[in-house]
Amino acid sequence: MPLPLLFFFLLVLLLNSSNYSCAAKVVTCSYIVPFHRRAHTISITDYGGVGDGRYINTKAFKEAVYAIQRLRRAGGTLLYVPPGVYLTGPFNLTSNMTLYLAAGAVIKATQDSLNWPLIPPLPSYGRGRERPGGRYMSLIHGDGLQDVVITGKNGTIDGQGGVWWNMWRRRTLKFTRPNLVEFLNSRNIIISNVIFKNSPFWNIHPVYCSNVVVRFVTILAPHDSPNTDGVDPDSSSNVCIEDSYISTGDDLVSVKSGWDEYGIAYGRPSVNITVRRVTGSSPFAGIAIGSETSGGVENVRAEHINLYGIGIGIHIKTNAGRGGYIKNIKVFDVYMEDARKGIKISGNVGDHPDGKYNRDALPVVKGITIKHVRGVKVQQAGLMQGLRNSPFTYICLSDINLGGVTGPSRTPSWQCSDVSGIAYQVSPSPCSQLISRPSGSCPNYSS
């Protein structure tokens, strides 16, 4: 096990330990969703579930969830998944329930795409993210729910995504690939103490949700797996992502809010997103915003982030035609090692759903504060490219040291255009568009 991963799991063990006397001092946002212990428990085996890795358990999961929904027991019901491998197609959850995976329990997705129902595209996207039309339903799905928990003793939810990745590579996809877990129009969601692996597409996708906690999870996918983002809060508010390890083929955490004219029309921003104590690795970004931000993104705070073997440490990305806004973003206390690029803030990233988007719909990007960042073996410190007719403003970099790779390099340390702001104690020296000052603090850009 790599040392950074080992150290991370030791930290998680300490934080989970009842003997850890300093646990009360750990800053957390997980209180936004109260944790309810269920008064009642049923087992998937009560409904015919078989954990032999061969039997298809879709009917068992559907019947168990239907029983919880129909009985409506006071205090809700816990669905227990005992040790074993439970092969299944997609299924829905219901309100006031906990899906609990015991140690050694694996919920494994069937690889036959014929077993995956199609659902309508998200209204803020207008079509499937990859292909026109609908999209495949996520393995574990919920719409219009409240008070739902997915947890356990580090059981595994395995999307068996290889068959989907190969369809993407061969360009034989008919519809957009499924997420591993998706909640729509839901509130008071907790996802904790579960391993997610090999998602066909994005791993955890709360969209049009409020009050969501993702904590103490591990998310794994090969670095060459396409679009396997870790956690993507999308047009959602009050989202807390903490104390997790993510190693995937795309962004570890990416905040989104809809795609071009569809996101503008839907008009639901992502607001009040906190990302804290996340460690991980990816050929793409560690902490990302975008590129789908047409509904707006505001009040994002990411801190105590450790990145190893990363493409871009911090990536804020949008495009002409997106519209929307990205403002009041705060990123503090980041360590990155072996990175292609330390910081990237760019207005020319991402594709478009169709030719109907308004090319004059220019995003507004302002109030970006990045402080206390350390980097080792960083090939390029930063790239900041705003839009000529909508420059990115009020950018503040403070106490940043991004050590470069050894040997000659043809790439300048910083490349900037159509941006403005200030810089304090930044090494290597930032581009001239940022007014360099020897000391001071970043202004409050929250307004």
UniProtKB/TrEMBL annotation:
The keyword Chaperone does not apply. The keyword Ribosomal protein does not apply. Keywords: Cell wall, Glycosidase, Hydrolase, Secreted, Signal. It is found in: Secreted, Cell wall. One of its GO terms (biological process) is carbohydrate metabolic process. It comes from the Eukaryota. GO terms for molecular function: polygalacturonase activity. Residues 1-23 form the signal peptide. Transmembrane segments: none annotated. Belongs to the glycosyl hydrolase 28 family. This is Polygalacturonase. It comes from Crotalaria pallida.
